[in-house]
Amino acid sequence: MPKDFDRGSSLEELEGLRWPVPPADTTPMVRNVYELRRRPAATLEPHELARLIGQDEGLPWLLPLAVEILRDTAPKQAEGGWFDDDLLYAVITRKPEVWAAAPELAHELKETVAVLTDVSRYVRQDIDAFLSALPGDDA
């Protein structure tokens, strides 16, 4: 997964694929995903990243951004601050194949979740599932 890319580009630009206008009868969530794909990656807020990642959209570009955000905010959580569980959940619940294809990123996320101390038991279960799905010492 590319860590270095033009963050001023949208997913549509990065992928070279412009989606058509969504059907009129589509759900608000689907319309939102279409809209977010057109925005520059650098302008996406954590909850917007969580939405796209949760839909498996733009993973090669958005997962590195999300892991960066999680890495940067994890120390604050460990000190008793707020942590974005939605983004964390979206990231750690991607399929094991995603992480197998990005071992360096998986390792960075593994180090990040290691410092988290105050997450719900449900998020802890998801973290444990993520960790157990990682290959041995490679991640």
Describe this structure in words.
This protein is mainly α and 139 residues long. It is built from eight helices and no strands. Helix 3 runs parallel beside helix 5. The longest helix has 20 residues. The radius of gyration is 15 Å and the shape is globular.
Structural class: mainly alpha
Q: Quick one: how many beta strands?
A: 0
Mean pLDDT value: 89
> Can you summarize the main beta sheet?
none
The 3D shape can be described as globular
Characteristics of this structure?
139 residues, 0% strand, 59% helix, single chain, mainly alpha
What is the topology?
Layout: H1 11-15, H2 28-37, H3 46-54, H4 59-78, H5 85-92, H6 96-100, H7 103-114, H8 121-133
Helix pairs in contact: 3-4, 3-5, 4-7, 5-8
Short description:
With 139 residues, the protein is an all-alpha fold.
